[in-house]
């Protein structure tokens, strides 16, 4: 195992243990909803957003413990978006994180509610974070709310749904990626920074880092959709072509898309200059997101 692999494995364990303590137990009444929430949360996600949140806190000189509740909050919001995205009325998918999707196991109504409950829990966990001197709990909740709403996550999803079957231009595609994907990565690192009392210039650097790695992440995701198998991805491969989605590989080709993802990752590295050696974990994570195979 490389150092990065063991770092990631240790972080996943740390986040999973905390999520286990934050989510109502599977035996809590009504048991079906709590089983459904746990089904999706513990299906084996990579935990990239909470890991980025913790690494951002450390880059700003804070401790991972201070950012743990917010880190779990972003994972809950992310998992809610995946559950809803997989519903028949959205992307209609049977597999996620290598297991049947929430609605396949618990039915559509319960999956919808599991997503709703995870979204509410996301806000609860951010509200339970530690406030420092520069940022109040209200600032952190506002940060998450802006990302979750119609101007970012939901808006990006709407543009994505409405773009199906159309020949989108690069600008339209960038809008979707920035809002559906990069906004969530950006909020993850910003919340980590806020929990660690980031200086204004550090928070601005985290925002730049989140947007650039977030865009690179989605480009790589689109590349993997055409180059990897369903088994490797843990979700249906080849969906973008099947649902006539415009993607970077479809518009630019695989090589130019790869080049674009590399350029964005270089920009992400430059954004971290302000942190000096403390930004090393975030640098390694940006490289990992670029090189990932699933
Ligand atoms: C509001 C009804 C309603 C729905 C929200 C916003 C939304 C629906 C869906 C967006 C979900 C989505 C598929 C975003 C794209 C980002 C992406 C590639 C997610 C996969 O992230 P990974 O690879 O997944 O980090 P794991 O499973 O490892 O966490």
Word description of this protein:
The longest helix is centred in the last third of the chain and has 28 residues. The chain is 72% helix and 1% strand. It is built from 15 helices and 2 strands. A hairpin with a 2-residue loop joins strand 1 and strand 2. The radius of gyration is 18 Å and the shape is globular. The protein has a single domain, classed as Orthogonal Bundle (Farnesyl Diphosphate Synthase). It is mainly alpha-helical and 294 residues long. Bound molecules: geranylgeranyl diphosphate (GRG). The site of geranylgeranyl diphosphate has 15 residues, from helix 4, helix 8, helix 9 and helix 10.
Question: Can you count the beta strands?
Answer: 2
Structural domain tally: 1
Helix content: over 70%
Q: Which outline best applies?
A: globular
The helix/strand series, from N terminus to C terminus, equals HHHHEEHHHHHHHHHHH
Largest sheet: 2 strands, antiparallel
Count of alpha and pi helical runs: 15
In the CATH hierarchy, the architecture is Orthogonal Bundle
CATH superfamily: Farnesyl Diphosphate Synthase
Structural class: mainly alpha
Average pLDDT across residues? Answer: 95
The strand order across the widest sheet is 1-2
């Amino acid at each position: 195992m490389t150092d990065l692999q063991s770092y990631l494995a240790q972080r996943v364990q740390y986040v999973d243990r905390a999520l286990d303590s934050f989510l109502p137990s599977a035996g809590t009444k009504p048991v079906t909803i709590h089983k459904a929430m746990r089904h999706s949360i513990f299906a084996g996600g990579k935990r990239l957003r909470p890991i980025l949140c913790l690494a951002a806190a450390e880059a700003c000189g804070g401790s991972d413990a201070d950012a743990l509740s917010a880190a779990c909050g972003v994972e809950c919001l992310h998992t809610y978006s995946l559950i809803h995205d997989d519903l028949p009325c959205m992307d209609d998918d049977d597999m996620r994180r290598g297991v049947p999707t929430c609605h396949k196991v618990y039915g559509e109504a319960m999956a919808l509610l599991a997503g709703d409950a995870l979204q509410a829990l996301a806000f609860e966990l951010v509200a339970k974070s530690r406030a420092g001197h520069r940022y109040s709990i209200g600032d952190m909740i506002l940060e998450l709310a802006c990302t979750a709403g119609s101007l970012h996550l939901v808006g990006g999803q709407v543009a994505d749904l409405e773009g199906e079957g159309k020949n989108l231009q690069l600008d339209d595609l960038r809008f979707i990626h920035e809002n559906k994907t990069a906004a969530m990565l950006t909020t993850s690192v910003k919340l980590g920074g806020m929990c660690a009392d980031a200086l204004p210039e550090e928070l601005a650097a985290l925002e730049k880092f989140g947007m650039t790695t977030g865009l690179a992440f989605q480009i790589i995701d689109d590349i993997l959709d055409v180059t990897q198998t369903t088994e490797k991805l843990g979700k249906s491969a080849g969906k973008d072509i099947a649902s006539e989605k415009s993607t970077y590989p479809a518009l630019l080709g695989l090589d130019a898309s790869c080049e674009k993802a590399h350029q964005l990752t270089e920009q992400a590295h430059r954004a971290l200059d302000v942190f000096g050696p403390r930004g090393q974990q975030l640098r390694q994570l940006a490289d990992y997101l670029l090189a990932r195979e699933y």
